[in-house]
Structure formats: C-alpha cells, structure tokens
UniProtKB/TrEMBL annotation:
HAMAP family: KptA (MF_00299). Keywords: NAD, Transferase. GO terms for biological process: tRNA splicing, via endonucleolytic cleavage and ligation. It is an enzyme of class 2 (transferase). InterPro entries: Ptrans_KptA/Tpt1, RNA_2'-PTrans_C, RNA_2'-PTrans_KptA, RNA_2'-PTrans_N. This is Probable RNA 2'-phosphotransferase. GO terms for molecular function: NAD+ poly-ADP-ribosyltransferase activity; tRNA 2'-phosphotransferase activity. Belongs to the KptA/TPT1 family. Gene3D superfamilies: 3.20.170.30, RNA 2'-phosphotransferase, Tpt1/KptA family, N-terminal domain. The lineage of its organism: Bacteria, Bacillati, Actinomycetota, Actinomycetes, Kitasatosporales. Removes the 2'-phosphate from RNA via an intermediate in which the phosphate is ADP-ribosylated by NAD followed by a presumed transesterification to release the RNA and generate ADP-ribose 1''-2''-cyclic phosphate (APPR>P). May function as an ADP-ribosylase. Its EC number is 2.7.1.-. It comes from the Bacteria. It holds the Pfam family PTS_2-RNA.
Length: 182
C-alpha cells in the first residue's frame, strides 16, 4: 500500500470515527466502537472502498496510533468531537506535560488557558519533541510546559489514551509556563 493511499484511508477513518459517523450512516456505541464489517460496508456504500488488509495496515503503521482494533471492532483512540466515553481511568500525570501551539494563539492562551475547542479534552504530550511536531502542523511551533503536578494536586483529572496522548478538560493559565522570547 503506497503512502498516499495510507494517508487517504487514515483521513477517511478519522473523519468518520472521530467526527462525523452519521455522514456514512454509522452509529458508534458509547465507547466509540463500531464493527469493522459495518464500517467497511458503510464506506463502500458511500463510494469509498478499502480492504481489510488496507485497514489493518493503516492501524498498524499510523505513527500516532490513532485507531484501536479489539476483536471485530475498531475505534479512534482519542480526538473525538462527538460524544464518546473512552472508558479511560483517571491517571496521575508526570510532573510536567507539554502542549504545542503557534505564536498567534499565545495571547488567548495567556488569558484563557488551554481549552478543548471542538474536542472534548485538551491534548497534552509527554515530551517536548511530540509537542513540537503537533505545533508545527500550524506554523512555527511554540511549546508550553504544563505544571500537571500542581493541577493534579488541585483536583484536575487526567487520563491517558491508548496512544499516549494525555487528556484533561482544560488547563487554566496559572498552570502554564511560557517559553522566554528570544
């Protein structure tokens, strides 16, 4: 399977498992799962065919581990804009986590902190390198440090998705550490 096809199938899966399952007639269960056969049939009925081998390849090679297969079912690991309960237990975070963004968002972040925007949770990274890659998708990256030890102490809840993304409802500005301007 070539890289372009892999990306195309991955984007299709993301759109319909994270954001708009109803567009192809899918109904996800409360945990975001759907039968693989149901997904493939719905996609084919809407003009986008892929094989089980292609699906397995996309799940296996996705560098962000965006999808999980359990038996005969598949779901997106996180990043939903639709209501799903991933069933992730509250988890004690490391002392600091990181968030990648771009400079044009810094004034709003200083005032309001990090908000989930069109997602259910704020996404945080365990290391600066990952946060840098996330921020770079929108321009020159700026990496913020999040004092998650203090947040956790103050009662904020954290979860970690199957693919290692840390999730929390919001990060108030007092827990953020901004890089020094050069």
């Amino acid at each position: 399977m070539d890289e372009r096809r892999t990306v195309k199938v991955s984007k299709y899966l993301s759109k319909h498992l994270r954001h708009q399952p109803e567009r192809i007639g899918l109904t996800l269960d409360d945990g975001g799962w759907v039968e693989i056969e149901t997904l493939m049939a719905a996609a084919a009925a809407h003009g986008f065919r892929f094989t089980r081998d292609e699906l397995d390849h996309v799940v296996a090679v996705n560098d962000k581990k965006r999808f999980a297969i359990e038996g005969t079912r598949i779901r997106a690991s996180q990043g939903h804009s639709i209501e799903v309960d991933l069933g992730l237990p509250p988890t004690t975070p490391p002392p600091y986590l990181f968030h990648g963004t771009v400079a044009r968002h810094l004034d709003a972040i200083r005032a309001e902190g990090l908000r989930p925007m069109n997602r259910h949770d704020v996404h945080l990274s365990a290391d600066r390198e990952t946060a840098t890659r996330v921020g770079a998708r929108r321009g020159r990256p700026v990496v913020l440090s999040v004092d998650t030890a203090a947040m956790h102490r103050d009662g904020h809840v954290f979860q970690v998705s199957a693919n290692g993304v840390w999730l929390t409802k919001a990060v108030p500005p007092q827990y953020l550490r901004f890089p020094q301007p050069h």
